[in-house]
Design brief:
By secondary structure, the protein is mainly alpha-helical. Helix 3 runs antiparallel to helix 11, helix 3 crosses helix 13 and helix 8 packs across helix 15.
């Protein structure tokens, strides 16, 4: 790294708790609050949740530690860190690919985050409950031009945080909102658990029935462990570059994993009891939150208030994740083109907005009928980023720390025993399982064995 680059990065550091909170902010997002409940509903309830925890421990956490170590060891953006650690260009090529992937995720994730902001506002004002056909209301909104404005608002907020820098922006923002999120989750969990009939939802979520597990559900859980911990996209690597050398990455890994799991658990303890109490079907798929849950809020006392809190909570969780996604491209463009942070932020957020416009219009909107190869524009962005680039990025991380980076032991700082266990997991277990996820999520397993949706 040049002297100038290291000086310009001097103010760009996390405090040790700030880093853990910001990384939890990245991990906890729509994946926990929106995707996790409906895939749990669809793929086996409590048994699925248990498999998800095992995947988190065996693959998610070891890869998380690996990504953060590359960032801190390489002290650069997601491509440069690899280059600073190895002369072989293949690795920085994968790093660059993950930057492209995070940009693509951000462009459609901001659209969904925009829906949550709009729903939150409408719930507080009560207008969300004017027409009880919630599926039709959601369809009409998603089919209009409005989602573009909400997507723009999400990117403006995200850009505002990122432009203020690592400690003054990202860290300060997360330090306020992540504890705030916990309070909101607890309030809504108490509300959900005290509804009459909530018990059925709790047993669905927490009492495993292993006969419900299939190879498909195991692979979905594995893929979700990656998405949920924000792996394979350069985010944890980029955040890792701002961590102090003295901080223990091993303890940080455990804290981030525990945080991600806790927030997913709380989200499940809100959504399942609330849905069951009102006789709603939890295996509804992506529409669960927007098209189904408003019916529950509409029929509970102070429902507009609780519904508003719920969608606000989703929006906060989403924006602490979009901040980490935008930072990946911002860090890269600051280094690549020597842009100032505000300029890099303005340009990348604008580019992301433009790439995301067709996504905002393709969920039942004007571009909804433009289906190529069975997928809309939105679905393609999600498919390429989450199903192809994410496993490839994760694989590159495990192979790099497992086989190419000889001095990784100095960086991770684990005790001898834990280091040996970790090395076995990143060398042998994680790569094999990531290849499975790749074959599954790209549809290759479906062709071969019929595993898949
Ligand atoms: N982990 C986030 C969630 O669960 O919603 C999503 C995410 C953020 C994925 C950042 C990937 C990423 F790089």
């Amino acid at each position: 790294m040049t002297k100038q680059a290291s000086e310009s990065r001097a103010g760009e550091r996390f405090s040790s708790t700030g880093f853990i909170i910001a990384a939890i902010g990245s991990a906890v997002g729509l994946g926990n609050m929106w995707k996790f409940p409906y895939i749990t509903g669809k793929y086996g309830g409590a048994a699925f949740f248990l498999v998800f925890i095992i995947c988190l421990l065996l693959v998610g956490l070891p890869v998380l530690l690996a990504e953060m170590a590359i960032g801190r060891g390489g002290r650069g953006d997601a491509a440069t860190s690899f280059r600073n650690l190895s002369r072989n260009k293949v690795w920085s090529g994968f790093g660059f690919l993950s930057i492209v992937g995070s940009f693509m995720i951000l462009s459609f994730y901001a659209v969904v985050a925009g829906w949550t902001l709009k729903y939150g506002l409408q719930s507080f004002t009560g207008s969300l409950y004017a027409n009880p056909d919630y599926a039709a209301v959601f369809g009409a909104y998603a089919g209009s031009l409005q989602p573009i404005a909400w997507q723009a608002l999400v990117l403006l907020l995200t850009g505002w945080v990122v432009a203020r820098g690592v400690s003054g922006g990202i860290e300060s923002f997360n330090k306020v909102l992540i504890p705030g999120l916990l309070i909101l989750l607890i309030i809504l969990m108490i509300r959900g658990l005290t509804l009459p009939g909530a018990g059925a939802g709790v047993s669905f979520f927490l009492e495993p029935d292993f006969s419900k597990l299939t190879p498909t559900s195991i692979l979905v859980a594995l893929g979700h462990a990656f998405f949920s911990l924000s792996l394979g996209m350069g985010t944890m690597l980029t955040y890792g570059a701002y961590v102090d050398r003295r901080q223990s990455l091993g303890s940080a890994t455990l804290a981030i994993g525990a945080g991600d799991l806790l927030y997913a658990l709380l989200a499940g303890l809100i959504i399942f009891p609330t849905s069951f109490a009102f006789g709603l079907e939890p295996a509804q798929g992506p529409g669960l939150i927007f098209a189904v849950l408003p019916a529950a809020f509409a029929s509970m006392p102070l429902g507009a208030f609780f519904g508003g809190l719920f969608f606000l909570l989703l929006a906060i969780a989403a924006i602490t994740s979009t901040v980490s996604l935008l930072e990946v491209s911002v860090a890269y463009s600051m280094r690549r083109w020597s842009f100032s942070r505000p300029k890099a932020t303005a340009l990348t957020a604008t580019a992301c907005f433009l790439v995301g416009i067709p996504a905002a219009l393709s969920v039942g909107g004007p571009l909804g009928d433009l289906v190529i190869g069975g997928r809309t524009y939105f679905d393609w962005l999600d498919f390429i980023a989450s199903n192809i680039i994410l496993p490839l990025g994760g694989l590159a991380v495990t192979l790099f720390v497992g086989y190419a980076w000889k001095r990784v032991g100095d960086e991770v700082g684990l005790s001898a025993l834990w280091f040996r266990i970790w090395l076995i997991l990143v060398r042998y277990v994680a790569p094999v399982l990531v290849v499975f996820v790749f074959l599954f999520s790209t549809g290759i397993f479906r062709v071969l064995f019929g595993w898949g949706e």
